[in-house]
Design brief:
By secondary structure, the chain is an alpha/beta fold. Helices cover 51% and strands 10% of the residues. The protein is globular. The N and C termini lie far apart (52 Å).
Length: 323
């Protein structure tokens, strides 16, 4: 499906009762068509191929697809791969994050790296870091931002100094449609331990426009840092009003603490891959920010705080702070 075909699909008159009443095969065919359109539009947006549409078209199509997936059943789609979940940030994003923390230009970092990913570890320690970052973490109902929901967000600010303490932390929970989730329960509850009673009566993340505006203001004021930041980036693209637009305009800088771990922690390459050495919990244990008998909470604010303190511990080991 090309961009124009995807736009034609997005703008076409849509009668949900007709689709939902057609049974599983009709709904599944519609889901596949809708997600193909989403993939084409997001690719065109990211590559700057087409400026004839606003990203609100994509977000609204995502909302439509989400309702359709609820009707199909979350459990049926749980193991269906997402075409909109990025596996990692681009090299350009990584270089921009380094440049921002070091008060340098993107071009100067890219000249040093010259497309060699092995040189990124050197770039991280080339200059001292300073400034303030916005740590953030989300909990969701799955891995596909075009199908699932954000149910928890936690964030904190931290100055990039050797002794700073994360500050101004907040956590918010968000609801799910009562039908079907009040009966079926919150997906992935076994991981994040968020139950229906935690979110009952709360607005959906997509409907809490006041909170969304506040988050966008924070994100455009400070670089954001997350562990496996491509996950948060992919979800905010589809769920946070104005995020995709600000991201493309260069107003949002994303820093991946998992990439920091992989580039700076020399133990990562020597540990078995199956032990997930770059996972936040394992990295935090090696840096002493999480005790051996403790476990990662898998909730937004707690994981954000753990991430920021672990990044600080790693930067201190490498004497990376300007102050």
């Amino acid at each position: 499906m090309n961009t124009q075909q995807a736009l034609d699909y997005a703008y076409a008159f849509y009668i949900p009762e007709f689709i939902f009443g057609g049974g599983y095969e009709v709904m599944e065919a519609e889901r596949q068509k809708g997600e193909e359109a989403l993939k084409a539009l997001v690719a065109a947006w990211n590559e700057g191929q087409d400026t004839s549409f606003g990203f609100d078209v994509v977000r609204e199509l995502g909302d439509r697809n989400r309702a359709l997936c609820d009707a199909i059943g979350e459990s049926r789609l749980r193991n269906t791969a997402s075409s909109l979940l990025a596996r990692s940030l681009s090299d350009r994003d990584i270089c921009q994050g380094i440049a921002t923390m070091q008060g340098r230009t993107l071009a100067s970092v890219e000249r040093e790296v010259r497309g060699d990913r092995n040189a990124l570890g050197v770039a991280y320690v080339r200059e001292k870091v300073s400034g303030t970052v916005l740590g953030i973490d989300i909990e969701t109902t799955g891995t596909a931002p075009e199908r699932g929901y954000i149910i928890n967000v936690g964030w904190e600010l931290m100055d990039l100094t050797s002794t700073a303490v994360p500050r101004d932390g907040e956590a918010r929970f968000f609801g799910l449609p009562e039908n079907p989730y009040k009966e079926t329960g919150v997906p992935l509850e076994n991981i994040h331990h968020i139950s229906w009673s935690d979110i009952e009566g709360k607005p959906l993340f997509r409907e809490d426009r006041e909170l969304q505006a506040r988050l966008l203001d924070l994100m455009t004021s400070h670089p954001i840092m997350a562990h496996n930041a491509a996950f948060e980036d992919s979800w905010f693209m589809m769920h946070l009003e104005g995020y995709a637009e600000a991201r493309r305009e260069g107003k949002i800088v994303v820093i991946d603490s998992r990439d920091i771990c992989r580039r700076l922690d020399g133990e990562v390459v020597s540990l078995p891959r199956e032990s997930a050495p770059a996972a936040l919990e394992n990295w935090a244990r090696r840096r002493g920010t999480l005790a051996e008998n403790e476990a990662e909470r898998h909730q937004g604010l707690e994981d954000t705080d753990l991430m920021l303190r672990t990044v600080q511990a790693e930067f201190n080991r490498k004497s990376m702070f300007a102050a």
